[in-house]
Each structure stands twice: as C-alpha cells, then as structure tokens.
C-alpha cells in the first residue's frame, strides 16, 4: 500500500514536470495564487494590483514584503507575511460574492480580474482609503 502511494506520488511529479515542459507558457505561473487562477496573464495581475493601490490609496509595500523606494525586483510578492495581503484576499472573495449575488441589480458579471466590468470593485467601498467611511464627508451637501 505504502509503495503504491509512493509510486503514485513519483508518477504525479513526473507528470507535472512533463506538463510544465509541454506548456512553456505556464512556466511563469503565479507562485502563491490562492484566489486568482495561477495562470492569470502578467498584464492582468499588474492591472489588478494597480486597482488595489488606487482603491486603497496605498503602494505595493502596504501588502507586500519590500522596502519602500527599492526596485520592485527586490520585493517578495509571493510572501504572505503581511496581514494586509491576507486581508486583501478575503476582500477579493467578498467582492466576488457581492458581484455574484442575484440581489445586485444590473447585468450579471463577476470576475477577480476584470474590475472595470464588475458592478462592485475595491473602489466602490474604499474610495482611496484603507478603511471605508461610514459617515459622510464634512463638505457633503445637506440631504434635506
Ligand atoms: C491591498 C493589497 C495589495 C496591494 C496594495 C498590492 N497587492 Fe499584489 N497581491 C495581493 C494579493 C492578495 C495577492 C495574492 C492573490 C491570490 O492569492 O490569488 C497578490 C499577488 C501579487 C503578485 C503575484 C505573486 C505570486 O504569487 O506569484 C504580484 C507579482 C503582485 N501581487 C504585485 C504587486 C505590485 C507590483 C503591487 C503594487 C503596484 C501590488 N502587488 C500591490 C495584494 C496586494
Ligand atoms: C462592500 C464593501 C467593500 C469592498 C467591495 C471591498 N472592501 Fe475592503 N474593506 C471593507 C470594510 C468595511 C473594511 C473594514 C474596515 C475597518 O475595519 O474599519 C475593509 C478592509 C480592508 C482592508 C484592511 C484595512 C485595514 O486597515 O485593516 C484591506 C486590505 C481591504 N479592505 C482591501 C480590499 C480590496 C483589495 C478590495 C477589492 C478586492 C476590497 N477591499 C473591497 C469594505 C469593502
């Protein structure tokens, strides 16, 4: 029994290596994608990350391990060390859930990456802040 599991594991590894070689475009799969499809094209990941920074009014280092001002090539984007990154993942799931809800009016559409097509995205609530406001801004016009 033990032997057959080991053989299965070796077989699976060999298959994975063969599959990776057969599809070289998959060589640059995301290292630690838990919400996104690991094969999400690089330009879609970049656009999404820009959406995150704009929506929250932050820079990459708010969620990712790296020195502010240092080249992005020195960052460890796959690391989950920062709580903000882990929180952002939950937020991606929440945003998806809202867009998938049939309580939301409009044309059904829900995507983790096509933020400009979603009816609700990170900007909807965050408006450039890490903590969405629950009160009106000072300069809001009187409702009545
Ligand atoms: C609000 C938090 C947040 C900000 C700001 C942010 N990211 Fe991310 N980033 C994430 C999360 C969450 C993931 C992982 C998504 C998943 O698990 O599917 C991620 C994943 C990535 C990955 C893929 C890592 C891998 O697993 O291979 C790259 C590259 C990346 N981010 C680059 C950036 C860059 C560049 C910036 C700045 C322009 C940035 N991020 C800003 C939250 C953030
Ligand atoms: C439906 C509204 C809503 C949407 C959509 C939303 N958020 Fe949030 N987000 C919140 C609320 C509310 C909090 C909690 C604020 C607090 O604790 O005061 C929060 C907190 C966060 C935090 C933690 C901030 C902190 O200071 O602890 C991060 C990071 C975050 N959101 C990222 C995102 C990202 C990235 C997206 C888009 C994928 C997103 N959020 C979409 C409502 C939203």
Automatic annotation (TrEMBL):
InterPro entries: Multihaem_cyt_PRC_cyt_su-like (IPR023119), Multihaem_cyt_sf (IPR036280), Photosyn_RC_cyt_c-su (IPR003158)
SUPFAM superfamilies, per database record: Multiheme cytochromes
Signal sequence region: 1-18
Keywords: Electron transport, Heme, Iron, Metal-binding, Photosynthesis, Signal, Transport
One Pfam family linked to the record: CytoC_RC
GO cellular component: plasma membrane light-harvesting complex
GO terms under biological process: photosynthesis, light reaction
Claim: ATP-binding is one of the keywords in the record: no
Biological role: The reaction center of purple bacteria contains a tightly bound cytochrome molecule which re-reduces the photo oxidized primary electron donor.
Name the UniProt record assigns to this protein: Photosynthetic reaction center cytochrome c subunit
């Amino acid at each position: 029994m033990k032997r057959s599991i080991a053989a299965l594991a070796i077989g699976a590894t060999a298959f994975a290596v063969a599959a990776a070689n057969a599809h070289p475009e998959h060589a640059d799969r995301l290292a630690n994608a838990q919400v996104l499809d690991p094969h999400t094209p690089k330009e879609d990941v970049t656009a999404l990350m820009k959406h995150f920074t704009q929506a929250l009014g932050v820079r990459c280092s708010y969620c990712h391990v790296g020195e502010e001002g240092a080249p992005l090539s020195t960052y460890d984007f796959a690391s989950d060390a920062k709580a903000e990154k882990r929180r952002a993942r939950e937020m991606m799931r929440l945003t998806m859930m809202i867009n998938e809800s049939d309580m939301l009016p409009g044309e059904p559409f829900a995507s983790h990456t096509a933020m400009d097509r979603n009816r609700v995205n990170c900007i909807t609530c965050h408006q450039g802040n890490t903590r969405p406001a629950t009160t009106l801004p000072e300069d809001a016009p009187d409702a009545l």
